[in-house]
Design brief:
By secondary structure, the chain is of the alpha/beta class. The strands form four sheets. It has a seven-stranded parallel sheet, with helices on both faces. Strands 9-10-8-11-12 form a five-stranded mixed sheet. It has a two-stranded antiparallel sheet with strand order 13-14. The radius of gyration is 22 Å and the shape is globular.
Length: 443
């Protein structure tokens, strides 16, 4: 949003920066810290919470901020903010409850921990910019509903591919077209990748092997496309999405979809492997006005019925401050569910699984996630990937079997399970054969 730079410049000139608290101090968080501290006038990173204080301090140090103060109480954090001293803590709830913080950024990528922090922030009336697609894809509709009740914003982020897709989706609708495909461009998709196979790549870029594995095995893109579906009302063409291998340009994809089927489904989320320009995103859309189709052809977008729009990059942490500013200054969410889940991410066996085993975490050795239409997943009792970690298997399952609730015992006492049960009760979903249109034509 171009307006954001001027709004932030005004805040800088007035000496009233947006005060940001960040939870997490990993690879992406370090980039966000550097971006806010060194490239975002009108915004201040006032506190970082992380389980390991040394990593929180290192996050500041990498951005050139020395000697942050460690705090263990709300009064101490509030005093540090008043004094203009960056603060670190191992208790993220302090950032949720303390005065003097205008927005919280969740950069954890952990479902249970992210749920605890996000719920606390919302209950304390704090806007949340979330880079936690895994949490959003599991209980996003409920969190959005709770945020609405508190009068605050719970939103995804610019820079991540879902946010970039949503920005383009909104632009395409704003010029009168009807988006029918929101797509993600990938370089690799192999559901059997593990932290061992991805260790060298992770080490090269200073990333966590499990996070890198979740990119490679399809779990991350499944969550990312699920939250795009939930924000647009789209669905998937089939379990796992179509996911073509296509080495050409994304413009060529306009001939590869059945437009009538896309209309019947109300639009789909999808991905493509190997296309140019990667690693960007694309939106394919139609226009019902023949006069405007003539102009689109003149402007080199072709004869239709599908027209290709794309963004050739996603810049992750670079754009997170814009999301914060949109939420705080404009009351504008980048991406959030518009109702119940449209697409669920379901846990699928990465190898043969044995009764008694405990399912490991996202990007691990045991499961990968697949995007499935929520009504179908609910009807079949499929296990959401966002609650699979820590479950004990009750029976043997072969590789590529989709886990069900009947296959596992859930761990006791988890917040994510309580939130999920509440969400399922509030949003019972629709019948699996309900083909109502989900994407309204632009007016």
């Amino acid at each position: 949003m171009i307006i954001i730079d001027r709004l932030l410049a005004r805040r800088a000139a007035d000496g009233r920066p947006i005060r940001v608290g960040m939870v997490g101090a990993g690879f992406m968080a370090r980039g966000i810290a550097n971006q806010i501290v060194n490239s975002t006038p009108g915004m201040a990173l006032v506190a970082i919470a992380n389980r390991t204080l040394a990593r929180a301090a290192a996050c500041y140090a990498e951005a050139g901020v020395e000697a942050p103060i460690a705090v263990t109480s709300i009064p101490a954090l509030e005093q540090a903010i008043r004094d203009g001293r960056p603060a670190i803590t191992d208790d993220p709830i302090l950032l949720c409850a303390a005065g003097g913080i205008d927005c919280l950024v969740d950069v954890t990528g952990a479902v249970e921990h992210g749920a605890q922090v996000t719920l606390a922030a919302i209950r304390h009336g704090r806007p949340v910019v979330s880079m936690n697609a895994e949490l959003d894809g599991t209980v996003g509709p409920l969190l959005k509903r709770l945020a609405d009740q508190e009068g605050v914003i719970f939103t995804g982020s610019d820079g991540d591919q879902p946010g970039v897709q949503m920005n383009l989706f909104r632009f395409v609708k704003s010029i009168g077209l009807t988006p029918l495909v929101c797509g993600n461009i990938k370089g690799l998709q192999d559901p059997y990748r593990t932290p061992e196979t991805q260790a060298a790549f992770a080490a090269k870029w200073g990333q966590d092997p499990h996070m890198v594995t979740s990119f490679a095995d399809g779990t991350k893109i499944s969550f990312e496309q699920a939250i795009v579906a939930n924000a647009t009302g789209m669905t998937v063409a089939r379990r796992g999405m179509l996911g073509r291998d296509h080495a050409g340009h994304v413009d060529e994809l306009v001939t590869m979809y059945d437009v009538d089927e896309l209309r019947r489904l109300g639009g789909v989320v999808d991905y493509v492997v190997g296309s140019k320009p990667g690693p960007g995103i694309y939106v394919l859309a139609t226009h019902d006005d023949p006069k405007q189709r003539h102009y689109l052809n003149l402007y080199k977008l072709g004869e239709g019925p599908l027209y290709s729009f794309y963004t050739p990059y996603h810049l992750c942490h670079f754009e997170v401050p814009a999301s914060v500013a949109r939420a705080v200054l404009c009351g504008d969410a980048v991406l959030q569910p518009i109702g119940p889940l449209m697409v669920e991410v379901v846990a699928t066996a990465k190898r043969d699984l044995k009764a008694g085993e405990i399912v490991d975490g996202l990007g691990g050795f045991m499961t990968y996630g697949q995007a499935e239409a929520y009504p179908a997943a609910r009807e079949a009792g499929l296990l959401p990937m966002g609650v699979a970690e820590g479950c004990r298997l009750k029976r043997d399952l072969p590789r590529d079997a989709v886990l069900t609730h009947a296959d596992v015992d859930l761990p006791a006492g988890r917040l994510i399970d309580r939130l999920r049960a509440e969400q399922d009760a509030i949003f019972p979903g629709v019948a699996a054969n309900d083909a109502r249109p989900r994407v309204a034509a632009a007016e």
